[in-house]
Write a structure and sequence with these properties.
The complex is a heterotrimer of chains A (about 325), B (about 260) and C (about 350). Chain A is built from eleven helices and 14 strands. In chain A, the strands form three sheets. In chain A, strands 9, 10, 11, 12, 13 and 14 form a six-stranded mixed sheet that branches. Chain B is of the alpha/beta class. Chain B has nine helices and twelve strands. A six-stranded mixed sheet of chain B has the order 6-7-8-3-9-10, with helices on both faces. In chain B, a hairpin with a 2-residue loop joins strand 4 and strand 5. Chain B is globular, with a radius of gyration of 19 Å. The chains are: A alpha/beta (about 325), B alpha/beta (about 260), C mainly alpha (about 350). Chains in contact: A-C, B-C. At the A-C interface, helix 8 of A face helix 3 and helix 7 of C.
């Protein structure tokens, strides 16, 4: 309608100005709502302005969280390349066989060769000169880039803390960017239902979220995806006071806290089985309550970062620790 | 006087080329022997060969009647001391610490250094004129002072054969004379001193015997007055030499001109 | 300013030994777990006498299995690295030499990434040690090619080349296998960390110190003889080439053992001998034992800082030694320039 089309461009500009002026530290769903007209989308993603005139037709994803989100929105046929998978696809997406560009971070030329109109990265660092390319440079070549908002590092963009509401808003944002708002809404609703049905564990259990590292473990800390999932599962994170998404933690601090359960991230480069062997073989750590009682929950790496598998991960954690 | 060292038919190869050819020379105990020759003549090589640092490619050296190669390293180091041209160190040693290194070949491997060693170091410092510098770090000293410290190190070895490789290079005239006077004193005590020198007149004045090397060969050896004559000096150094006798000592004084110039009178 | 004579050295050594024991005691009480000193004492006594300690088994494990082996390893590694550094500086006649000069740390890194990232089926310390020795062999081969003996200048250059090669290999492996955050496995090893030190590490580090370090102490006089170069050393009766080979190999074994348990902790081997030399002079009979004691004390404190400063997080100790070591090193350099 004509009147709307007259009003929206100045509103879009005003919103963009507000966003770029870097308002509030907390991620506020309203302020970051992407401004969309019938087809064009423009939003502030980790400090970079992303503009698309039309929903992207040729999408390249880097990292499992990005790939799985695109597939979950039913946009598999628009995926021209996927890279740097952190593990196999979840069961729900098992049928999909998206084209694989690279096992690791692809270089700029190989990405450009696919003529994408959007590159969706799971980490900010995917967009570096020796990775897929700097975001501004790709934009100059007509390739839009998008980083999973939960992975933004800069204060003001890093969710502090990441919660399921924030996560679902991010899914909605991705949906509007990709031109699949309805699918995103449906996905969010489904996830919200599943989340609501989870009965958190009772008993005031404390937990350690061990992601990687051996001598000095890298653990889920207070403001990231692990914290979000532990909260939903009814577990208290022993590293909840550490103001970071993940952090190295000393074994002595962990021993002093003596968590009731340990959530082990299973990755090909550091399997849950190896982690368990290491715990049982260590004369100090074998004394931990969780190790003596073998109270473990295993989470695949891709489900450990903010994405579409977090609700499922919470279900799995609760189920594993219930028996 | 018996020979401290006898060099017989000595040839030494370094880096693929023969630096010394067939040297025959006797080094007498209780005497100062000067090695002379232009740069590259092989003086340093001969000095180092006498110290046992170069294996001969032909011929050999006898030290006190036994082949030099037959001595154990430490045994040889107790008999022969070498003062090199340049001794630089990165480490902040004091003069006394540097001199004490001279006792290395005398240390019993497993015992702590006894007072005999300390006394030897002090005596060496005094002899070399470095006693008042004993606690100063080497890198604070002038070239001449450092020379005295290294001389003390050589003396601390209490050698029978003292080898000095161009010891007067960085010294002023008074210091040069003092060094050679010390050499004469040591010789009087029975030590054999060999000094590679550049200054022909200084050598003539202070040495008991001189040996002239040219491009790795021994050209002449004997008493200074016999060896340092124009017939020997001119072809070796490529100059025109005039030799005069010192008014009081009778020792040769050598004056040079470039070869081929006419004397203007 | 210089401690005079033998009695001065012994007195200083006793003082440092006392400081080391005190440091170990204090370090055993400090930690994120906040155990009271009495609890620490109970745990240690109980273990030593075989009695029950009356402590929660986890608390006892914290003291006996986490803290104690770690601080003892720190002491042994600190002593070993300082000793190796002092010997290296004497043998190469270069005050900027450190124990890793012959490519040891980058060789060990290759071994470490092999195990941690490529899944080679060896124990990490074994692979790291093997890597260090391989690097040493390569350096010695390159340095002695052309048959002029192990001349210090060539050794240093060969070591630099081998170090660069090892680093490149390590980086290649890290880059090639980079998945998820797999680099986390190796990063604390590369920076140097004592977080993984349990009793086997104590055995390796202390064992190396006793088996290789003690004989090195006895090489003090020979090291002194190298002060003025090869010619002077040879003239003093030292078998230069053979001695240099022996000292290099011994230092490499000592350093390799330390690196295999703690990764490449920097600055101890470079700065501690310098600082001690300023106080007691360059005679190695004094320098070696005093540098070893000082290195032990420094690393015990650096490790304590690394594991308590950012409670409950943990820093690799190599970061602490670098942060401490750099200003100390600059101060030493400036002091020297001021004098000359």
């Amino acid at each position: 309608m004509p009147a709307r089309q007259l009003l929206l461009p100045p509103l879009a500009a005003a919103a963009a100005v507000l966003l770029l002026a870097g308002c509030s530290a907390a991620v506020d769903a309203d302020a970051e709502a992407p401004v969309a007209s019938a087809e064009a989308v423009s939003l502030d993603n980790c400090g970079t302005e992303v503009s698309l005139d039309a929903p992207p037709e040729r999408i390249v994803t880097i990292k499992s969280t990005a790939t799985e989100l695109v597939l979950s929105l039913g946009l598999g046929d628009r995926l021209v390349g996927t890279a740097f998978a952190d593990g196999p696809l979840p069961e729900a997406l098992a049928g999909a066989e998206p084209p694989v560009l690279s096992a690791n971070v692809p270089n700029q030329e190989s990405v450009l060769e696919l003529r994408p109109d959007l590159v969706f990265g799971g980490w900010e660092s995917n967009f570096s000169a020796d990775g897929a390319g700097e975001r501004t440079e790709l934009a100059g070549l007509g390739v839009a880039t998008y980083v999973a908002p939960s992975a933004c590092q800069e204060p003001g963009y890093q969710p502090d803390p990441l919660t399921f509401e924030v996560l679902f808003d991010q899914i909605r944002e991705a949906g509007s960017l990709l031109g699949a708002e309805a699918a995103a809404e449906g996905l969010v609703l489904g996830q919200q239902e599943r989340l609501a049905e989870i009965e958190p564990l009772d008993g005031d259990l404390t937990a350690l979220w061990w992601s990687s590292g051996a001598d000095t473990p890298y653990v889920g800390a207070g403001i990231g995806a692990p914290q979000m999932m532990l909260d939903a599962a009814g577990l208290t994170n022993i590293a909840a006071d550490v103001d970071a998404t993940w952090s190295p933690l000393g074994w002595e601090a962990i021993a002093a806290a003596d968590p009731d359960v340990i959530v082990l991230v299973d990755a090909t480069w550091n399997t849950a089985a190896d982690k368990i062997s290491a715990l049982e073989a260590d004369p100090a750590l074998a004394q931990l309550t969780a190790v003596r009682e073998q109270r473990y929950a295993i989470v695949p790496f891709a489900a450990g970062e903010g994405g579409v598998r977090n609700v499922e991960a919470v279900e799995s954690i609760v189920a594993q620790l219930q028996g | 006087m018996s020979a401290a060292a006898v060099v017989r038919g000595l040839s030494v190869r370094l880096g693929g080329s023969e630096v010394l050819h067939g040297i025959d020379l006797a080094i007498e105990q209780g005497a100062v022997t000067a090695l002379l020759g232009p740069n590259g003549a092989g003086k340093s090589t001969l000095v180092r060969a006498l110290a046992g640092l170069h294996a001969p490619s032909a011929g050999g050296i006898e030290l006190l009647g036994r082949p030099l190669g037959g001595y154990g390293r430490r045994e040889r180091a107790r008999l022969v001391a070498l003062l090199e041209q340049e001794s630089r160190s990165e480490l902040p040693l004091t003069v006394r610490e540097a001199a004490a290194l001279g006792r290395t070949p005398h240390h019993d491997r497993f015992a702590a250094p006894g007072t005999g060693h300390e006394a030897a170091v002090e005596a060496a410092l005094a002899r070399a004129g470095a006693a008042e510098l004993a606690d100063r770090p080497l890198d604070e000293l002038s070239g001449g002072q450092r020379q005295r410290a290294h001389l003390a190190r050589a003396l601390a070895q209490q050698p029978r054969l003292l080898l000095l490789d161009e010891p007067t290079n960085h010294l002023d005239v008074a210091a040069q004379l003092a060094t050679l006077r010390l050499a004469r004193e040591l010789a009087a005590e029975g030590v054999a001193v060999v000094a590679a020198l550049h200054d022909l007149t200084l050598a003539a004045a202070q040495a008991d015997a001189v040996a002239v090397l040219d491009r790795g060969r021994l050209v002449a050896s004997g008493a200074p007055a016999e060896v340092l004559v124009p017939a020997v000096i001119d072809p070796v150094w490529g100059v025109r030499a005039t030799v005069l006798a010192h008014p009081s000592t009778g020792r040769p004084i050598i004056a040079y001109e470039a070869a081929g110039t006419e004397e203007s009178s | 300013m210089r401690a005079a004579g033998r009695t001065g050295t012994v007195a200083l050594a006793i003082v440092l030994a006392v400081v080391l024991c005190a440091s170990l005691a204090v370090a055993s009480v400090l930690g994120t777990a906040g155990l009271p000193p009495t609890a620490v004492l109970d745990a240690v006594l109980a273990r030593l006498t075989g009695a029950a300690s009356g402590l929660d088994p986890l608390d006892e494990a914290i003291v006996w299995q986490l803290r104690l082996p770690r601080i003892l390893t720190a002491a042994a590694v600190g002593a070993g690295l300082a000793l190796a550094g002092a010997v290296m500086q004497a043998v190469t006649r270069n005050r900027l030499a450190d124990p890793y000069l012959l490519g040891l740390s980058s060789g060990a890194s290759v071994g470490a990434v092999g195990v941690l990232l490529l899944g080679v089926g060896l124990l990490l310390p074994v692979a790291a040690f093997a890597g260090a020795l391989a690097a040493l062999a390569l350096t010695l081969v390159i340095a002695s090619a052309g048959g002029r003996g192990l001349e210090p200048g060539r050794m240093i250059l060969a070591g630099v080349a081998v170090s660069a090669f090892g680093s490149a290999l390590t980086s290649l492996v890290i880059f090639w296998t980079a998945t998820g955050d797999s680099y986390r496995e190796i990063v604390s090893w590369l920076l140097g960390s004592l977080a993984g030190a349990r009793w086997p590490a104590v055995a390796i580090a202390a064992g190396a110190l006793l088996v290789v370090g003690l004989p090195l102490l006895r090489s003090a006089r020979t090291l002194d003889a190298f002060a003025f170069g090869d010619t002077a050393a040879a003239a003093l009766g030292v078998p230069v080439v053979r001695t240099r080979w022996l000292l290099m190999v011994a230092t490499a074994l000592l350093t390799g053992a330390m690196v295999s348990v703690s990764g490449a902790i920097g600055f101890i081997g470079l700065v501690v001998p310098h600082a001690v030399r300023l106080v007691v002079g360059a005679r190695h009979r004094r320098l070696l034992p005093l540098a070893a004691l000082t290195g032990a004390i420094v690393l015990v404190w650096a490790d304590t800082a690394a594991r308590t400063l950012l409670d409950p997080r943990e820093l690799p100790v190599g970061i602490v030694t670098a942060v401490l070591g750099t200003p100390v090193f600059v101060a030493l350099l400036l002091r020297r320039r001021g004098r000359a």
